[in-house]
Specification:
heterodimer; A: about 60% strand; B: alpha/beta; about 35% helix; globular
């Protein structure tokens, strides 16, 4: 199944999947630890729901990730990744489908093109996210699995994916 | 009872970190010491792609005394560092090294790690830009995927290699090895003092090493015994081991007293041997 088919299928499920019209609760603040995904090999993220209407939600997410702390000359010079994204979430009972996209800001230390020097290269890579999230009502823990393809520096398409574990913070009533 | 369990846990934790090996008993042709080398740089499990400039530089800056690298020749006779047969196995390009021009390969980006975009390096660039390059040794493993092994091709390959070695005055620092003897013979005819390394089964290897007046022999760790290494030393040949993917593999190889170990666990090997 290629990239376009996956997105068409997810879009269809998000917009046309029948569900009873009742408000579905999704916590506003969540911390998510991801393995893989738009943060590279793994990242720590903060998610905030900024718009909710019945079973539909919009959220933004921002995170960070360290690739490694020391560069190839063994000096402290960490590679950094900052994934940011916006998500459209449709929740039905304990299950949610996610569809979104954003950018990964990467700042990587490498050799220059002719290998004559060490450089830090900062670049932007668009990404897309589509996946599934499981979270019981009024429970802080969630699990999610996503397909997260990346266009490295806007040029090279890469299939990618992640699993994530979230912890939500409930607002006191 | 509780204290005994606690004591055992503490003993276990401390014993886990220990990698004691008796290096005073090492006997070989390398001044009775074992030199730690990186396998294709930092090895196959590293975040750096194997044979990349960054991987090699990282291994040497960690304290490795040298590295094994895989070399191939492009269509326009440039020696490049690359392990696999096809470009698609490791990069964003498709095709074969020996059918590609160097200018095309300069556009290649290693697929992994994602976002890093490391590039293929030529042997000339490696020797040109690696800091303190003459402090290190390089086992050059010829990857000969092309079907053409004619005299003409062998001459072109060896001449291209010698050109780079001469340009950077690295003859003392390279250890060429190939599974096809004719490449080594040709190299020996061009540079009689070059330190050839034989790469074949032990018994056959001893005969070949004698014929080629080789400097050393390279073996997979699991396919060689301590006694065979001792025999090779008695015949006057250094012995190098590869195929070491874990800390236990490193310790096992050290027990055999080779001259050089090419490990995928470079950091551990350096720590144990230094």
């Amino acid at each position: 199944m290629n990239f376009k088919k996956i997105f068409l299928l997810t879009s269809f499920l998000l917009f046309f999947l029948p569900s009873k019209s009742q408000e579905v609760f999704l916590p506003k603040h969540t911390i998510i630890l991801e393995a893989g995904g738009i943060g590279g090999f793994g990242s720590l993220n903060y998610e905030r729901i900024f718009f909710s209407k019945e079973k539909y939600h919009l959220s933004y997410r921002a995170g960070f990730s360290f690739f490694r702390f020391k560069d190839f000359e063994r000096t402290f010079n960490p590679d950094l990744l900052f994934p940011i994204s916006i998500h459209f979430v449709k929740k039905i009972k304990n299950h949610a489908l996610t569809f979104g996209g954003g950018l990964t800001i990467s700042s990587i230390v490498k050799a220059s093109s002719d290998f004559s020097s060490k450089i830090r290269r900062t670049s932007l890579s668009p990404n897309f996210i589509t996946g599934y999230r499981f979270q019981k009502a009024n429970k802080p823990f969630s699990f999610q699995i996503n397909y997260t393809p990346v266009f490295q520096q806007g040029k090279r398409f890469r299939h990618w994916g992640n699993i994530g574990f979230g912890y939500s913070f409930f607002q006191k009533k | 009872m509780r204290n005994s369990i606690l004591f055992l846990i503490i003993v276990f934790i401390f014993s886990c970190g220990k990698n004691d090996v008796d290096l005073s008993q090492v006997s070989n042709l390398n001044g009775n010491k074992i030199s730690p080398y990186g396998h294709a740089g930092m090895g196959i499990a590293s975040q750096f792609p194997i044979n990349s400039f960054e991987s090699i530089s990282n291994a040497l800056n960690l304290g490795a005394e040298g590295v094994e690298v895989d070399i191939q020749m492009t269509k326009d006779s440039v020696i490049v560092l690359y392990h696999d047969r096809t470009l698609e196995e490791q990069t964003n390009l498709e095709g074969l090294i020996f059918e590609s021009e160097w200018s095309d390969l300069q556009q290649a980006i290693y697929k992994n790690p994602i976002f890093a975009e490391y590039k293929i390096v030529s042997l000339d660039q490696l020797f040109e830009h690696l800091k303190n390059v003459k402090d290190y040794k390089f086992l050059l493993d010829f990857k000969l995927y092309q079907s053409d092994h004619s005299d003409r091709y062998i001459s072109t390959f060896t001449n291209a290699l010698v050109k780079v070695i001469d340009k950077h005055q690295m003859e003392e620092n390279v250890l060429p090895t190939a599974y096809r003897t004719e490449y080594l013979l040709k190299l020996k005819s061009l540079r009689p003092n070059i330190k050839l390394v034989v790469s074949t089964a032990f018994e056959q290897g001893l005969i070949l090493a004698e014929e080629l007046d080789a400097y050393g022999m390279v073996f997979q760790n699991e396919k060689i015994t301590k006694e065979q290494i001792q025999q090779a030393h008695e015949e006057g040949f250094q012995v190098y081991l590869f195929g070491l993917y874990s800390k236990n593999d490193n310790l096992d190889a050290i027990e055999k007293h080779p001259d050089i170990i090419f490990s995928d666990k470079v950091k551990h090997l350096i720590k144990v041997l230094k």
